[in-house]
Here is the input.
Amino acid sequence: MTDSRRLEASDCQDGGPWNDRQPGALVIACSDGRFGDEVDDFLHRRLGVPCYDRLYVPGGAGALASSGSEFLRAQRYRSECRFLIDAHGIKRVILFFHGPAEDGPAEAVCGDYNRRLPTSTPSAVRRQQERDARQILRDGLGDNVILEIYFCEVTKDRLLRFKAIDV
Here is the structure.
């Protein structure tokens, strides 16, 4: 039997002050929790992005591409992105894909891509992710929005490495 308890009002703690300024950046990444902390660290330390809107969904940036039979899903997520971009004055969109490096562990392949491409090798999935990145860049997400696309890969030593996707 698991120990579960309902969160009571007395368990809630006050946080810091609310910041009413929109951050101007939107991050789209996979909801896979194995990458979340490292994505945050990469954004803060390497890209100098202190705060940002988040859209974390299965497949990350791949959810915006209509590869395979995912046209309606991609259309829905692109619509959500355009809403955030317009409503929050977003000027910079940072997109992430993830998977194994060339010599990395196969289990690092994005689960959403595994679902969509169940018989594909990790390298075939990576090629599809690169095609999806090109499609997203080609189609864009709105006027005057800068798109940056990165691949978070797991090395054979099980370390995470971020690479700009050169499309």
About this structure: Strands lie at 25-30, 53-57, 92-100, 146-154, 160-164.
